[in-house]
Amino acid sequence: MSAVTVARWVEVHRLAVAGRESAIAREVEGRVARVWLSRSRFADVAALAVATLTLGPDARSFWDLGFAQSSTGQPRPALANYEQALHRYRAAGHRNGEAATLNNIGLVYHGLGDRQQALAYYQQALPISREVGDRASEAATLTNIGLAHGDLGERQQALAYLQQALPIRREVGDRAGEATTLTNIGLVYDMLGDPRQALAYYRQALPIRRAVGDRAGEAVTLANIGAAHDGLGDRQRALAYYRQALPIQRAVGDRAGEAVTLTNIGAAHDGLGDRQRALAYYRQALPIQRAVGDRAVEATTRYNIAMIHWAERNLDQAVDELEIVVDLHRQIGDPELESDIAELEQVRRERGDIGE
Q1: Fewest CB atoms within 10 Å of the CB: 4, 124, 161, 209?
Q2: 10-residue averages of pLDDT along the chain (356 residues)
């Protein structure tokens, strides 16, 4: 849909809302939102959906509003709107909408660090997508299941799901989805300690992200390329990619992504030996992570802060941060919990709390 056509539809929507023509407003909202979501215009989608909902409840408008909110660091409002959408899709017997909503509720829980809850929703969505023959939705859910397993430390299982998803994305011509799956395969290889293989997948994904105008996705892939270079020890190149990603994340309102990138910039400076600059970036990231409820990334940031305090023999501060890390990882069932507890005990031992 061209920019001129979209502008015309937006005017039609405005007139429909003003004239209380709910059927027209809902139809147009759905068309325009599909275009704007693909271009990361989340604030515009939210405004469009809110205007449509002034005419009464509507599953698609609740779904679009939830998507916009989840993409801009508002997980709790997003969940409330997705639940409204889910109730209405089920009442209408709209199985495609039900599956898409279950999938996205899973994504919100994933962003909150609750991977098991996320998997529970993905596993409700997957058989519905298959039942109705929605191959695009099936591939999206397989991708999300793969990423959840990756974050739970089950990397080979993650790759198995992602490798199921990729040919389906290509079969249905879902270029944006293909780039998402390629990026996530790269991420799992990075988790497996193979940053070069990760880079090969990210470099396939990046031009697709740009070609389809997915600004939020472009930033994710740029940030991941930065992380892979950091893993290879090339901190300056990593910083160059992070600095490309950060303004895009801020422009599209991706608060969760912004916080991850700030943490990664801090880690790169830490690796370069500039601990004070690293701390400054970590401290920018923390309030955002708390605001968006990303417990997994908050734990990473606090762990990095703790390691700096430990290295500088500020043992009280190191213990304080590691206690929070252990609590966060316990909440989300993180596979790193055992090693965190061991490090906390080591710092306490050095501080004299525990006898040798």
Answers
A1: 4
A2: 83 95 95 92 95 96 96 94 98 97 96 92 97 96 95 94 97 96 96 96 98 95 97 96 97 94 96 95 95 90 94 91 92 83 89 68
